[in-house]
Amino acid sequence: MAKIGIFTGTVYGNALLVAEEAEPVLKAQGHEVKVFEEATLADWQAYSSDVALVVTSTTGQGDFPDSIAGLHQQIRDQLGHQPALRYGVIALGDSSYDNFCGAGKTFDATLQDQQAQRIGEVLLVDATENPEPESVTTPWVEQWGKLL
User: Fold this and answer.
1) Which of 64, 86, 111, 113 is least enclosed, having the fewest CB within 10 Å?
2) pTM of the model
3) E strand or H helix that includes residue 92
4) HSE value, Cβ hemisphere, 13 Å, CA-based, for 86
5) Which of 77, 87, 23, 76 is nearest to 49 (CA)?
6) CA distance to 49, 53, 99, 144, 148, per residue, from 69 (Å)
7) Alpha-carbon span 66 to 57, nearest angstrom
8) Of 43, 38, 41, 5, which is closest to residue 23 (Cα–Cα)?
């Protein structure tokens, strides 16, 4: 089974809630899982040959929450090529804004540029349709975990 780091970017706690709901689902599948609320680059690099699940909300005009903005910038500016990393992205957003799920889409684009291997599709969760995001994310996490 896989070693998975769940890296969260949250403003009001929804992304952290989704991560905390995902943890037991993945553990029940036999994976080793750890949730990071304020991850460092060293935390990220500990999973460079394993699996990362990014769970982030979007703030402002498609921006990252403060809790993950610095990590993304360091990954983008300092890491470069990451072909051994396998990852998934759950992006939380609100479709009434122009840059719907912008942070998650940007994180995915960065990892794609670095040639990391995305497992499954990026899950875009719209707060206007799903006020309780875990109702959408938990089934996705169950399927995603089986792909590892």
Assistant:
1) 113
2) 0.97
3) strand 86-93
4) 11
5) 87
6) 22, 15, 16, 25, 27
7) 11
8) 5
